[in-house]
Amino acid sequence: MTPFAREQWYVIAYAHEVGRELMARTVLGEPIVLYRTEDGKAVALADRCVHRRYPLSESALVGDTVVCGYHGFTYDTKGTCVAVPGQSRIPRTARVAAYPLVEIDGFVWIWIGDPARADETAVPRAEHLTAPGWVTVKGMEPIACDYGLLVDNLMDLSHETYLHGGYIGTPEVAETPITTEVDAEAGVVRVSRHMADAECPPFYSRSTGIDGRIRRHQDIEYFAPCLYLLHSRISPVGQDAPLFRTEITYAITPGKPGEVYDFWAVSRDFAVEDAEVTEFLAKFNHTVVMQDVTALNLLQRALDAEPAGYQELSINIDAGGLAARRMLAGLAAR
Ligand SMILES: NC(=O)c1ccc[n+]([C@@H]2O[C@H](COP(=O)([O-])OP(=O)(O)OC[C@H]3O[C@@H](n4cnc5c(N)ncnc54)[C@H](O)[C@@H]3O)[C@@H](O)[C@H]2O)c1
Ligand SMILES: O=C(O)c1ccc(O)c(O)c1
Ligand code: FES
Ligand SMILES: [Fe+2]
Predict the structure, then answer these.
(1) Pocket residues: Cβ below 6 A from ligand 1
(2) How high is the mean pLDDT of the chain?
(3) What distance in angstroms lies between residue 41's CA and the mean position of ligand 3's atoms?
């Protein structure tokens, strides 16, 4: 299993998902309850009551406090217990952990680690998700696999040719070599594949209106451990500047061991008023994501049935994924 890297920021939800209803998510194996205060501030607490460990997400939100649904221990936004039933003295140790949160670019980021070390300026940015002039479609799918399998999947887009043919894949994706760069200091892995003359897959022909062959550049930036950006640049062959810019964002958040949240988004700065294009990209990308979900569920079940110590065989296309795995191992070991 890919080790969990603590002392890091992770996307726990889209901002729009968090409201005045208690919501449960598990990140790096930690059960967490999320809600918004009456003033609109997002709060994340450990989702286990200190009394008998009842899930607080199955409780009542009363004003800005959570009243445990089992015996009524009441917690404020800092996780401090402010009332217990049947007595006025509150035990000094009656508190649950409160997690640092940052809301930015339409994501709610949570710090998993020592709260004193949470540096908000270290949250990686995906400005296109909310920038004026850009339109975004998005969603989230949970997958029953090691989160490292989703990292591998996204770092090696040669699979588009085989798994996503007729959607985003064409023969040129698998045929074109990649370049890989590692910025160990910044914690970023970059993988680029520049296709000078390629078939235009339906994802781009139907969104851009191009009907001939294209120049297609895929520039990946993986900000380990959670944020993945694919800068996609498309133009008709012969054009010497990119005409169509699409930013594909994934946030890869480990849930319980063997589970991952796959947050996905597609942003564009062309045809922004065209509702048909928006609807097409939302539907089409969801289908693409489900092709990956199905493959990764299947792959995890196959790996689970393997005897220990099975051998993998890597080739050139795996350079980005291998660099990402090394970076994750380094973050987890720190
Ligand atoms: N690793 C690389 O090779 C590489 C190169 C350039 C940019 N990037 C990354 O891409 C991100 C986006 O950059 P930006 O928004 O400033 O640049 P941009 O929107 O001006 O696009 C520049 C990109 O378009 C590509 N491009 C140029 N002409 C093209 C054409 N005719 N058809 C298709 N693609 C074409 C370039 O290779 C480059 O990737 C940046 O974050 C940068 O780090 C990576
Ligand atoms: O390679 C691409 O252009 C592309 C498009 C949409 C996706 O969801 C994706 O993962 C990749
Ligand atoms: S378990 Fe929460 S009050 Fe008893
Ligand atoms: Fe895929």
Answers:
(1) 190, 192, 194, 215, 217, 219, 221, 231, 233-235, 239-242, 245
(2) 98
(3) 25
In this prediction the ipTM stands at 0.88
Nearest to 5 by CA among 115, 147, 154, 126: 147
Q: Map out the domains of the chain with their CATH numbers.
A: 8-122 (2.102.10.10), 127-333 (3.90.380.10)
The set of protein residues with a Cβ atom below 6 angstroms from ligand 3 is 49, 51-52, 54, 68, 70-73
Give yes or no for residue 271 having a pLDDT over 90: yes
Report whether residue 18 contacts ligand 2, using a CB cutoff of 6 Å. no
Question: How confident is the model at residue 334, as a pLDDT?
Answer: 87
Q: What is the pLDDT of residue 28?
A: 98
Confidence of residue 242 (pLDDT cuts 50, 70, 90): confident
